[in-house]
């Protein structure tokens, strides 16, 4: 079984689940999961966890993400992007009256934290039902706002009625809803025309590979070169190695004490560390409890 994370370039027309299903066939293993859904018409970085790395899915889904987007001013749709049915349209001459300065100021005003009402066409569940299933029946229900953070927006081009920008945002942010909200503030409405995810954590679009490329490198026998090991993903945590005599504690999922480490470690109370055997085999994440001088398992990757 392959363990680690692969940086997949999701092509248009595929859902994130489609990518996982195809990878199961290509790699001949079932234990695969993705980190952060991309809409079918969006493209770009989709980190996929393989084998033991599937335990990382929730952790990495929490990370900030960067996108390149094109917003179409003057058009609103039921999906908040150009794949949906038009629900409202502002005459183009009204859109063209907008000044670049106003467009710039309104977009930049979104940098920071704000409460975003998720779109009906989304996979969010309310009362056990996915919103997009209700939306397809023509139903619309009240959605509680979700707190999100726009870390940065850089406008790259204003060519009305289109505006292109880069945005880095927190987990759970819908870029198409951001476009919709900006359009409302500008008084002309808007929807998202294009979306490319360019980065998730350390995974950059320039290093991503398509499904067909994955098949090729699998056949060439060099797939391992494109897999990021589990412990590398967790390299923000300090490394701790346990003596050979105490390794049975690790394999049984038990705590161990600071006396069992190979080197004197200066860890702080509550600190999370990566734990390895004496010969460098990664075991998992542990938390140091200073009062008892013990390391308690959090997540084991054996």
UniProtKB/TrEMBL annotation:
Keywords: Isomerase, tRNA processing. InterPro entries: PsdUridine_synth_cat_dom_sf (IPR020103), PsdUridine_synth_N (IPR002501), tRNA_psdUridine_synth_TruB (IPR014780), TruB_C (IPR032819). It comes from Eubacterium ventriosum. Responsible for synthesis of pseudouridine from uracil-55 in the psi GC loop of transfer RNAs. PANTHER family: PSEUDOURIDYLATE SYNTHASE TRUB1, TRNA-PSEUDOURIDINE SYNTHASE. Belongs to the pseudouridine synthase TruB family. Type 1 subfamily. The active site is at residue 39. The gene is truB. Residues 24-175 form the Pseudouridine synthase II N-terminal domain. It catalyses: uridine(55) in tRNA = pseudouridine(55) in tRNA. The keyword Isomerase applies. It is an enzyme of class 5 (isomerase). This is tRNA pseudouridine synthase B. One of its GO terms (biological process) is mRNA pseudouridine synthesis. The keyword Acetylation does not apply. Its EC number is 5.4.99.25. SUPFAM superfamilies: Pseudouridine synthase (SSF55120). GO terms for molecular function: RNA binding; tRNA pseudouridine(55) synthase activity.
């Amino acid at each position: 079984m392959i363990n680690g994370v692969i940086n997949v370039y999701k092509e248009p027309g595929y859902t994130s689940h489609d990518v996982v299903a195809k990878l199961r066939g290509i790699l001949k293993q079932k234990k695969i999961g993705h980190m952060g859904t991309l809409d079918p018409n969006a493209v770009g970085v989709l980190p996929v966890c393989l084998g033991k790395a599937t335990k990382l899915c929730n952790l990495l889904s929490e990370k900030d993400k960067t996108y390149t987007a094109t917003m179409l001013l003057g058009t609103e749709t039921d999906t908040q992007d150009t794949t949906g049915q038009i629900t409202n349209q502002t005459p183009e001459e009204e859109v063209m009256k907008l000044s670049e300065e106003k467009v710039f100021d309104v977009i930049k005003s979104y940098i920071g934290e704000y409460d975003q009402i998720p779109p009906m066409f989304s996979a969010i569940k309310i009362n056990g039902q996915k919103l997009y299933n209700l939306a397809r029946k023509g139903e619309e229900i009240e959605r509680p706002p979700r707190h999100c953070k726009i870390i940065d927006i850089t406008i790259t081009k204003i060519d009305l009625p289109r505006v292109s920008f880069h945005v880095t945002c927190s987990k759970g942010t819908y870029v198409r809803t951001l476009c919709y909200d900006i359009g409302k503030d500008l008084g002309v409405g808007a929807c998202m025309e294009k979306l490319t995810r360019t980065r998730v954590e350390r995974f950059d679009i320039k290093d991503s590979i398509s499904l067909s490329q994955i098949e090729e490198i699998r056949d060439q026998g060099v797939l391992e070169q494109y897999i990021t090991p589990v412990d590398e993903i967790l390299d923000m945590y300090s490394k701790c190695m346990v003596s050979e005599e105490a390794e049975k504690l690790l394999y049984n999922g038990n705590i161990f004490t600071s006396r069992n480490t190979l080197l004197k470690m200066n860890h702080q109370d509550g600190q999370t560390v990566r734990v390895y055997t004496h010969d460098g085999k990664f075991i998992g994440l542990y938390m140091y409890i200073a009062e008892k001088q013990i390391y308690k398992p959090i997540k084991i990757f054996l």
